[in-house]
Design goal:
Blueprint: H1 7-14, E1 18-20, H2 24-45, H3 55-62, H4 64-67, E2 74-80, E3 83-92, E4 97-105, H5 114-128, E5 133-139, H6 144-152, E6 156-157, E7 169-175, H7 178-183
Parallel strand pairs: 4-5
Antiparallel strand pairs: 1-2, 2-3, 3-4, 5-7, 6-7
């Protein structure tokens, strides 16, 4: 398909292992992909510098490892060999909630299901740490495919105010019901 990802790359990335960042090289690869994501998001959303509306983005750019240093926080990386294929973060907000943040799939891997696998990895992590709900903020207009994927997993738009002051930003939540908790065992 002209202009589209090479199907061999997409097929390979579908099976990219996903693991929490632990080693310096993991953090380096994740940081590089995070920079790509934040630059893309700034352009796609029209805000320019994402750090002006999401101060945590600047903190993450400076030291990603420190930004996810909480005992229940994790930053996951999907790799294909030495290449970073995708990232996603899980940040504990309070006793009940884990926030899914910074889901990004390398353009060559889009359409492969990797975004869903990364999201499911955060769901499993949230269950493992005893959370009752996962929340996330997204931009439906900028990322319609991601919003559709979240809805297909059972996330619903909430009435809670979205902390991202950007037109079109929406907060979604997914209760981690008892059936979801047992399904993970």
């Amino acid at each position: 398909m002209p202009g589209g990802p090479d199907s061999r790359i997409v097929a390979s990335m579908t099976f990219a292992p996903i693991s929490a960042c632990h080693h310096p090289r993991d953090w380096e690869l994740a940081s590089q992909l995070l920079d790509d994501y934040l630059d893309w998001l700034g352009c796609a959303s029209g805000v320019g510098d994402v750090g002006t509306v999401q101060p945590s983005a600047d903190v993450e750019r400076l030291d990603l490892r420190a930004a996810f240093a909480g005992p229940d926080d994790r930053f996951f990386l999907a790799r294909l060999g030495a290449l970073a294929a995708g990232t996603v973060g899980a940040r504990r907000l309070d006793h009940d909630d884990v926030e899914l943040v910074r889901l990004f799939v390398h353009p060559a891997a889009r359409g492969s299901g990797l975004g869903r696998r990364l999201t499911e990895r955060v769901l499993l992590h949230a269950i493992e740490v005893g959370a009752r709900r996962i929340v996330l903020d997204t931009h439906d207009r900028v990322m319609p495919e991601a919003a559709a994927m979240y809805r297909s997993l059972g996330f619903e738009e909430t009435d809670e105010p979205c902390p991202i002051p950007v037109p079109g930003a929406v907060r979604y939540a997914l209760p981690l019901t008892l059936s979801l908790r047992y399904a993970s065992l």
